[in-house]
UniProtKB/TrEMBL annotation:
Pathway: Amino-acid biosynthesis; L-threonine biosynthesis; L-threonine from L-aspartate: step 4/5. Its EC number is 2.7.1.39. The lineage of its organism: Archaea, Thermoproteota, Thermoprotei, Sulfolobales, Sulfolobaceae. This is Homoserine kinase. PANTHER family: HOMOSERINE KINASE, HOMOSERINE/4-DIPHOSPHOCYTIDYL-2-C-METHYL-D-ERYTHRITOL KINASE. NCBIfam families: PRK01212.1-4 (NF002288), thrB (TIGR00191). It comes from Saccharolobus shibatae. HAMAP family: Homoser_kinase.
């Protein structure tokens, strides 16, 4: 017997919400199929269209499954097909989506009746497999959809943010950039301590963003899509970002921020925005930094 599940790409952080906020989008998706094999070996065999680790404890789709099976005493031989649609290492929640889809497929296959938060808790292990740290933001967005806030990690608690402003998404995805273990490195760039003034400013941004979404206020969303701590520390990973942000504002986007740990950039747009100009000038800006950006239009 086999079960399949799909999970979408996401942009974590949304400016000041490092490891807290995340937005799922239709830009890309991963599909996972899990089949129970008629064998007693207890092996997990991985097949993929992509060059991912084939060791179950090192693979972000299968490590969560290893953990569920251990915790719940489930014994089975599995064949796991990982069909990657989300490009990896570009800040689009690729490993989180694989992990989320794998846990959803496993949940259906073994009729475990896991709640969405339990799915997030297990899928979070996929992030340990890929980056060494169990940040649940991308996973939560892929499981719940929309914009989510992870308000607690242990126990996992996820709040779905009501969105009362309708917007579209433009993503600048630098396709010719590959940094080995990017998320791990990007996390090492984040400062261990921050100044009180930076903390206050970032808290202002996050409250502005959340209230902007809930009340449907464009100006608050724009102000909220800022950050003075994490994006700033990671700027060497995406040096074109400040200029793309300026271009986005010049052509009246709602706002923009770095997608997850980068190097992709997220721009939120609406009917006031000249999307074509942003795409054109933003692509040129990437080129000035010797980066080939693909512009993807998506919805939440
Ligand atoms: N919140 C995480 C980070 C997302 O910025 O490191 C990584 O995918």
């Amino acid at each position: 017997e086999c079960k399949k599940a799909r999970a979408y790409s996401s942009s974590a952080n949304l400016g000041s919400g490092f490891d807290i906020l995340s937005m799922a989008h239709t830009a890309f998706f991963d599909t996972i199929e899990i089949c129970v094999e008629n064998k007693n070996s207890g092996d997990i065999v991985i097949e993929s269209n992509s060059n991912i680790p084939l060791e179950p404890t090192k693979n972000s789709a299968t490590y969560p499954i290893v953990r569920i099976m251990e915790e719940r005493g489930i014994k089975a031989s599995l064949r796991v097909k990982v069909i990657k649609g989300i490009p990896e290492g570009l800040g689009l929640g690729s490993s989180g989506a694989s992990a989320a889809a794998a846990v959803m497929a496993f949940n259906n296959l073994f009729k475990l009746n896991l709640s969405k938060e339990e799915v997030v808790r297990y899928a979070m292990y996929g992030e340990i497999a890929s980056s060494g740290s169990p940040h649940p933001d991308n996973v939560a967005a892929s499981v719940f959809g929309g914009v989510v806030s992870v308000v607690s990690v242990n126990p996992v608690k996820v709040v779905e943010i009501p969105l009362n402003y309708s917007f579209n998404i433009l993503l600048f995805v630098p396709l010719n950039v590959h940094i080995e273990e990017k998320t791990k490195k990007a996390r090492e760039m984040v400062p261990k301590t921050v100044k009180l003034s930076e903390y206050i400013n970032n808290s202002r941004y996050m409250s502005s963003l959340l209230i902007g979404f809930v009340k449907g206020e464009r100006d608050l969303i724009r102000l909220g899509l800022n950050d003075e701590i994490v994006e700033k520390a990671r700027l060497p990973l995406f040096p074109y970002y400040p200029k793309i942000k300026q271009i986005a504002i010049k052509y009246d986007a709602i706002g923009s921020c770095v997608s997850g740990a980068g190097p992709s950039i997220l721009v939120l747009t609406d009917k006031m925005t000249d999307e074509n100009k942003i795409a054109e000038e933003g692509t040129k800006t990437c080129n000035e930094f010797n980066v080939e950006c693909k512009v993807i239009k998506a919805k939440i």
